[in-house]
Amino acid sequence: MRSPRSRTQGRPFIFGPTASSRRDPVFFVYILRCSDNSLCIGHITNVEARVRAHNMGAGWMHTFQRLPIELVYPEPHPTRHAAIRRERQLKGWSRRKKEALIRGDLDRLQILSKRRN
């Protein structure tokens, strides 16, 4: 019989609930502000690494041409599906609604969200 250690490539094999207690990744929807004041929206699990990558030139052509960029709004989501859904929602918003969200101005966001007849 093989030892549990050989099945885990040198790491100790853990039985019980701790074996499955690895944290699920948290997905973030983020808004970046570029040097020309344009806003970019995306989703990722590691926001800090993504911002560093963008500022080093590895990213969208839009951000590459408008360095430096800064993270102005991160929003956590429990699943990739939820993050993608929120990203699509934010991309459909007006600039004024996005700016109100970034500022945390919920009153203004509510006013801007009302339908106009």
Q: Could you characterize the architecture of this molecule?
A:
With 117 residues, the protein is α+β, with helices and mostly antiparallel strands. It has one domain: GIY-YIG endonuclease (3-Layer(aba) Sandwich), CATH 3.40.1440. It has helices at 4-7, 47-55, 61-64, 80-91, 95-103, 106-113; strands at residues 27-33, 39-44, 70-77. Strands 2-1-3 form a three-stranded antiparallel sheet, with helices on both faces. A hairpin with a 5-residue loop joins strand 1 (27-33) and strand 2 (39-44). Helix 5 (95-103) runs antiparallel to helix 6. The protein is globular and about 40 Å long. The N and C termini lie far apart (74 Å). Mean pLDDT is 81; it is low at 1-22.
Specify the helix fraction band. 25-40%
Low-confidence stretches: 1-22
Q: Work out the strand percent.
A: 15-25%
| CATH class bucket | Alpha Beta
Radius of gyration: 20 Å
Class by SSE composition: alpha+beta
Q: What strand line-up does the widest sheet have?
A: 2-1-3
Would you tell me the overall average pLDDT? 81
Beta strands, count: 3
Question: Can you give me a brief rundown of this structure?
Answer:
This protein has helices at residues 4-7, 47-55, 61-64, 80-91, 95-103, 106-113, and strands at residues 27-33, 39-44, 70-77. With 117 residues, it is of the alpha+beta class.
Keywords:
6 helices; globular; 39% helix; GIY-YIG endonuclease; 117 residues; alpha+beta
Secondary-structure topology with pairs:
Elements (H helix, E strand, L loop, with lengths): L3 H4 L19 E7 L5 E6 L2 H9 L5 H4 L5 E8 L2 H12 L3 H9 L2 H8 L4
Antiparallel strand pairs: 1-2, 1-3
Helix pairs in contact: 5-6
